Amino acid sequence: MYAEGVPCWVDAQLPDVDAGRRFYGELFGWTFEERREDHGDSVWALLDGEPVAALAHKADGRMPTVWTVYFATPDAEATARRIRAAGGQLVTAPTPVGGLGVAALAADPEAAVFGLWQPGGHPGFGVRHRPGAFVWAELYARDTEAANTFYGHLFHEALFGPGAAPDFGRAPVADVFPEMMPPHFLVHFGAEDCEAALGAVSRLGGRVQAGPFTASYGTVAVVTDNQGASFALLER
Fold this sequence. Notes:
2,3-Dihydroxybiphenyl 1,2-Dioxygenase, domain 1; Glyas_Fos-R_dOase_dom; Glyas_Bleomycin-R_OHBP_Dase; alpha/beta; 6-stranded mixed β-sheet; hydrolase activity; 8-stranded mixed β-sheet; 20% helix; single chain
């Protein structure tokens, strides 16, 4: 079970889940398990048989095509109240997902969207911190001090407590993106060889947005998949 405030799951909202299966299956070696009985039209991505992500059909074409990171919480309703009290807002109220757990979407005071996951039958990642799996989430913010205050209030132990290893960093938007880019979270997946992975992204119909560049946590490249969802590749 993941501690409160630790990234524990990611999903992608895509126009075409089958196209997503082909792209990510080829890029990361993922296999897929149907989850239609639990949460609409979605599949779980597996790496060596362990769950690493979900691909879900974007029900509303007006919604963005995005990867979302979910932070673990023992009580999604209580965390939602703290988010509102700290100046954030709820995008989607805590909602049971079959017997798997309770999910919510929220936005921080700069409108960067993130998820909450209160585990039930599904604790989150079965494997992480390796090529083809989640390794990091970076928040690109306008005001990193304000972000540290907001998330420090929300997830203090995970970010700043003894032995904290949150897999969650904060950086100014303009460090990597044009200044007009809105604040957002960027999900990072591990890559054994970042340059080789970039070649695969391009071959599969994706594109490179930025990098590779050196960050404090490794070599990073920002890409989009063949449907426009942005994510990062991280070589350590």
